[in-house]
Every structure is written in structure tokens, then in C-alpha cells.
Amino acid sequence: MVDYSLYLVTDSTEAILGKRDLVQVVEQALEGGVTIVQYRDKTSDTGALIATAKALHKICLQHKIPLIINDRVDVVLAIDCEGVHLGQDDMSVASARSLLGPSKIIGATVSSIEEVQVAVDQGADYLGIGTLYATQTKKNTKSILGVNGLREILSWLGSHEKKEAREMKTVVIGGVNLSNVQRVKYQLSAPRTPSVPPKPIDGVAIVSAIMASPSPKATTAQLKLLLTTPPPFVPKAPEPHFVFHSPSDETAAIKTSTIAALKAVHAHSPLSHNMTNLVVQNFAASVALAIGASPIMSNNGLEAPDLAALRGGLVINMGTAVPDALRNHSLAIAAYNASGGPIILDPVGAGATSARKDAVAFLLASGYFSLVKGNESEIVTVARISGLSLEGIRTGMGEGEQQRGVDSSPSSLTLQQKATLVARLALRERNLVLMTGATDILSDGTHTYAISNGHAYLGLITGSGCTLGTVLSAYLAANTHAGPKSLDPLKAALAGILHFEIAAERAAKRSDVKGPGTFVPAFVDELYLCRREVVDGEGDVGWLEG
Ligand code: 3NM
Ligand code: MG
Predict the structure, then answer these.
(1) ipTM value
(2) Which of 46, 69, 220, 243 shows the smallest number of beta carbons within 10 Å?
(3) Strands 371-374 and 432-435
(4) Domain 247-545, what fold?
(5) 466 is catalytic
(6) How does pLDDT run across 257-313, given as a tens digit for each residue?
């Protein structure tokens, strides 16, 4: 049994190895815990290759770790190491098998289903699937697959009729490092549907993150730790889903969880860190204060690590899609993913321009988002970018059609279609997805809620969607991250939505509210009053009865 979990691929170039000795660097990686080593050297002469391979094989044997040689079947035969790794331009798997026999390990680099098919048919032992992310280490790669391209290949293998395909070992390669290894593994093990389990990857293959590290042993040990512990951004032990037997049971349970969630926001006053657009900064800060959170408006990614340490939540709102924003956003995403703080992605106007589409694609590849919220066309855009098939969901809108402005375009999906889309996207991303509209749809992929609270005035003021993101950051932070107890994130988000929407209903009904202008201050008041009634009112939560 070969352990592929932390697969080191060597590199002898000056850019990565520097002036250090290859064998010493690999030895440190072995001490740190790599589980398999591939000697990859594209330039040395055969004599030097064999000499280095021998030295590597000696230390690998001492650690009981298999050594694989890139490309060169002759070198494998010369030193009798454990196997070969073949690229698409190298010898075929079938030829290598006939030269090496049945017991040597043969791996193949693949980047498409066609290539996978050939490698499976010819009897490869494992596949190196790539390129996951663009990497300086290998610039001439065929295609950047991203997490979604990887998922397609894994789904194909996992649902194949042949056992050889279903049980094929896989490692992912290209740009894997300390900052993304947990997310990649987590998102690649998302179930495809609630009933079909995924085919998880067996390992990650890494070059520069280890080989170019100033401390290969420590970096390897850290990678190993990250691979074997749950990612910090996955909520700690959420309470199990309730099984509801009747609508009234469910209503009672939602009331209970909403009250608990609201009280947690009040008690912890979590930081709501908003990287948001200029239009809504002031309003979002007022809304945060009204619900009992602590707002900070900071678009500077350099201060995100300090803020992430305060156990709050982050809102990334793409409303100001300037190029510099992306650099700041990616710094903040890395900081919050590392601390475990929830991140809300609000892809404002995602489909409106190609720059915004690119920005969404960049952000989705930069980190894990606990919740993605948007109107129908924004969520459709995110779903497309994330590679989700809209087949059977969408019939009206052509692929090329653009969203006009950032306001919601008239609906072309039925409620059932929207719910299917939202649930599929949530399942795929392993997070929460909220599609806002007259009826809001919230899903974690297995449970989906349609929420019809709210008021039309919310659509007539600026920033209502953005400030809902602020509310959700506080509800998720207080209930899944900051406090000692962890609520199901779905219930925490639902509570935030209800607080927000019911406050809007109450504000709109007030006699002093004549239209959207007077609605805004009344709404902030009612957000505050709803909270006070729960916190002070000894369980008097009449507003939740609606
Ligand atoms: N093969 P790093 S990407 C050797 O896509 C190799 O097939 C690739 O290097 C492929 O871990 C790659 O430094 C280099 O990003 C990966
Ligand atoms: Mg090759």
C-alpha cells in the first residue's frame, strides 16, 4: 500500500533549489514527513541522473518511502527504485509496464478525461492531475483546471463502471502550498449530490512549497499537520440537523435557534469587518451596531491578519471592483481562512462586466467562503464560473447575455429552479448560498429554506443587500466561531436573515414611515428594537411569530 498523501516532486533548478544540495533538501523533507518522492530532473545527463537517483534512493529506503523517477524508465531499471512517473510526452504507460513489470509503480500526468481514460486503460497505478493552479515551477502546462476542473475528473473516475477507474489513486499538482492545501482538499471532497459520495483525492503533489522553503523539514511537517486536521474555517462540531416531523415543530425549532443566535451576537459583539463599497460604508456600520456587532470598515488587506485574530467575520463586497481591491481581498481571505473566521462573499454586479466576472473567478480561487450571497443573476454568474451545470435549471437566459447594472434583473427562474440552483451550488462549494429576492433562498446543500419576509422598501434603498452581508458576518462569527457553543451555520444565517427581514417589515408598517427615505432610520431602529426585545424581554419575541 502506497501512501500518496504528501507527494514531494523535486526540482534541481537554481530558481527553486538555489545553491543547496538536492539530497540534503529531500532528506529534510523526509524528516518532515513526505510520504513519497519523485525525482524530477529535466536537464542532467544520464550518468548524473543515475548517481543522484541512487543517493536519493538510499535516503528514501532509510525512511521506508518509495522513490519514483520522472520520465526515465532506464533510470528506474538502473537503480531498481519503486517506479516511474510519465508525462503526456513521455513513454506510454503500457510500454513502461512491459519494461518494468507488474510490481513497479507507474504514475501518469493527466489534465483531461481523455488522458485519464488512456492512463486507466493502460493500467497506471496513480494519476497526477493538474495543473490545479498556475505555477512558476512549470510554466508550459497544458491547462489550468482549478478546483472545478479537478472535480470533473474526480467525478468521472468515481462514477465509472470499471473498478480500476473508481479505485484509481489520485494526487493533485500545481500551486499547492501551505495557504491553500486545506481548502483544496476540503472542497475536492464535496459530495456531488447528497446521495452520491465524492471520490476524494489521495494526496497533494508539491514542488516549490517544499523544495524552495528555507526550512523544508518544518514546512513539510506543517503541511502534514494541515492535511490531517480539520480546516479552521469549517465550523466546529455543529449540532446535528434536527429532523422535523411537522411544520409547527420546525417553526418552533427555528424560533429557538434564532433567539439563541441573536443572543450570541449580542453577547459576543463580534467584529464585522467590511471590505465594502463606498456607497454603503456608513449604512453598514449603523446596521452592525444596531444588531449588536462591532463594525470596522477597512479595505486595507495589510491589516486583515490583526483583525482576523479578533474572531469576527469578514464581508467581501465587490461593489468597488478596482484592480487593487483584489490584492487586498486576497490578503484578507488568506488571513480569515487561516484564523477560521467566516467570510461572506457578495459578488455585486458579478455578471455586469467581464472585469467583474474575472474578479469573481479570482476570488473563488483565492479562498473558502462560508457564505456566498447575491441576487438571482449574481448567483447564476457565480454558478457558471464555478463550473456548475445549469442544465435542467435554466432555459430562458442565453449564455452570452449580460446582466444590466447591479440591480436584480427580472426573474426568469421559478422558485423551484432557484432552490435547485442554490442547493447545488452550496453542495458543490461546501458552504452556504443565499439568493436574495422577494423570496430569499438559503441552502447548505442538503437543507434549503425559502424566506418570504421583508418589504419592498428594501429594494428602493441603496445598500440593503450589502448590509444583509454585514448582518450575516456577525451572525456566523458569533455562532460558529467566536463563542464556546457552535450553532449549525445554516441556522445562524437563517436567524440573521429573519432578524433583518422582520425588522424591515416592522419599519415599513410604522406610521412615521412615508417611503424609502423615512424607512432607512426606522429600519435601523427596528433592527435595534428586535434585539432589545429578545435580550430584555424575558422571552417576549412577538416579532418572531410572523
Ligand atoms: N507538473 P508547484 S504542475 C511538475 O500540471 C508539475 O502536470 C504539473 O509545482 C502539471 O508545486 C508542476 O511548485 C509543478 O506549483 C508544480
Ligand atoms: Mg515528462
Answers:
(1) 0.95
(2) 243
(3) parallel
(4) UDP-N-acetylmuramoyl-L-alanine:D-glutamate ligase (3.40.1190)
(5) yes
(6) 999 999 999 999 999 999 998 889 999 999 999 999 999 999 999 999 999 999 999
